[in-house]
Design brief:
Distance between the termini of chain A: 31 Å
Radius of gyration of chain A: 17 Å
Shape of chain A: globular
Helix content of chain A: 55-70%
Number of domains of chain A: 1
Oligomer: homodimer
Number of helices of chain A: 5
Strand content of chain A: 5-15%
Number of strands of chain A: 2
DNA sequence: TTTTAGTACTTTGCAATACATAGTACTAAA
DNA sequence: TTTAGTACTATGTATTGCAAAGTACTAAAA
């Protein structure tokens, strides 16, 4: 059990949720997303983000458009779809339930 | 993307954490643990719990003792070790960080 | 012009893990 | 001596995060 990894484990189930939260604020391209997540205290490597974006796009929760960049290759700007918004609401509800459950487990003491 | 599963995904990274939280309250055998978790809103099937308990025990975060039962086969009563307590503190810190991160992502709006 | 560096997207393969399922074993009651 | 209820164990698989290597574009340096 390596301690460094405990936060990473917890984060894993929240990856899609966090991506959708970021894109809920407006369209962004992958480096933007990674920066936003890092800024909030969550690290997500490229090798994780890109496949996830592709999966979310295939499920029609996200869409994207190409935009030329003067600083390198063109960028894929992703944005959340209406279907994605609906799913985000579900995830928000799930997140609340999880928080409540953990909170309950933390606070209760044996009778 | 099946909606029924979104909560399950989020829960996955918290399994060990929740088991340790339950045992922090006092020793319990697997059926107790499953009942406690269910009572808090988390379902954990046997096929998940037993291997996890074995892993945590091998890492010396848990220990157990056998106790005879009049209602069937003997039970394995698990309890948390000092090492487990320390690890639980780490997990609590990680959990706080995750909550803060998600909260930040939820509340921020694009400038 | 060619090379190098920086940025961005893509693909591949592996290791870890949750968990469904089936199996073993014990007790008590029918 | 079956049957049912409870408890622990073992096996096999599908998913998934992610490291790492690869491709492609632009701009600046040599």
């Amino acid at each position: 059990m390596n301690i460094e990894n405990s936060k990473a484990q917890m984060r894993k189930g929240l990856l899609e949720f966090c991506i959708l939260l970021v894109l809920h604020r407006g369209e962004a391209y992958p480096s933007d997303i990674i920066a936003s997540l890092k800024n909030s205290g969550l690290d997500m490597p490229e090798g994780t983000l890109y496949p996830l974006l592709t999966r979310l796009k295939n499920e029609e929760l996200l869409t994207y458009r190409w935009e030329e960049s003067t600083m390198g290759p063109p960028r894929k700007y992703f944005s959340i779809t209406e279907k994605g918004q609906e799913f985000l609401r579900v995830l928000n509800a799930s997140w609340s339930e999880i928080q409540t459950a953990v909170s309950t487990l933390s606070q209760s003491s044996k009778p």
